[in-house]
Amino acid sequence: MTVIRAVVADDEPLVRAGVRAVLASDADIEIVAEADDGRQAIDLVQRHRPQVAVLDIRMPGTDGLCAAAEIRRTMPGTGVLMLTTFGEDDYILRALSGGASGFVLKSGPPEELIAAVKAVAEQAAYLSPRVAARVVAHLASTRAGEDQRVARQRVAALTDRERQVLALLGGGLSNRQIARRLGLVEGTVKAHVSAILAGLGAPNRAAAAVIAHQAGTHLPTSPDGDAPR
Questions:
Q1: What angle (nearest 5°) sits at the alpha carbon of residue 218, between those of residues 216 and 220?
Q2: Least CB-packed of 80, 119, 162, 209 within 10 Å?
Q3: 29-35 and 52-56 as β-strands: parallel, antiparallel, unpaired?
Q4: How far is CA 181 from CA 124, 165, 174, 186, 196, in A?
Q5: Would you state the pLDDT for residue 166?
Q6: CATH top-level class for 146-215?
Q7: CATH class of residue range 4-121
Q8: Which parts of the chain have pLDDT scores under 50?
C-alpha cells in the first residue's frame, strides 16, 4: 500500500500531539505537516498535496468548516476528515454540506482514527458509529432533516444492487473494497455510487452514508476499515 500523506490541524497542541502519535504508529501513514488554524491548514494542503487533511471542526480564525470547504474546492484530490466532540451536531451537518468525507470523535479509540484516515484516503466516507448515531438523531428531531420514514422510502426506490452498494458505502468501504466484496469491477461500483447519490439526492458519499444509517441499511465498520462479512 502506498504511504498515506496527511496534514493535521488542531489549535490545541496536546490534541494535535495525540493525533500525530496515533497516526505515526501506523507505518502506512505519514504526517507531512501540522497546523494550528484553518488558514494555515489550507496553505499546507496546497503546498504538500496530501491524500488526507485531518481538521478540528472548530478553530479560531478560519475554522475547520471553512477550511474543509476551501480544500475541497481547490484540492479535490485531498479528502477531509473532521475531528469533533459531542454536542457539535450542527457543525457536523454543515461540514457534510461542505464536502467533508469523514467524522471521528476526539475521544474515540485510536484504531478508529487510523481506520478513518485510510478510508478517506481511499475516497470512501467514514462516520464514527457514535457520530452517525448523533447526526441521525439530530436530523430526526429537525424539520429540515430527512426522517427515518423518508430515508427508507428513498433507499427502497434504489435497485437491489444499489442498496447492496449503499450498505457497504455506509459501512465506510471504498469503491475498491465494495468491488472486491461484490465481485464487480471498480468502474461499475463507481457508476452505482453516482446513481445512488442521484437517487438519494445526496451531495456526497458522507451524506449518502448518513441516509444509510437513518434507513438502517448500513453495515458496521470494523477497526481495519472493512465491514464484517
A1: 115
A2: 162
A3: unpaired
A4: 15, 10, 11, 11, 18
A5: 92
A6: mainly alpha
A7: alpha beta
A8: 143-146, 222-225, 227-229
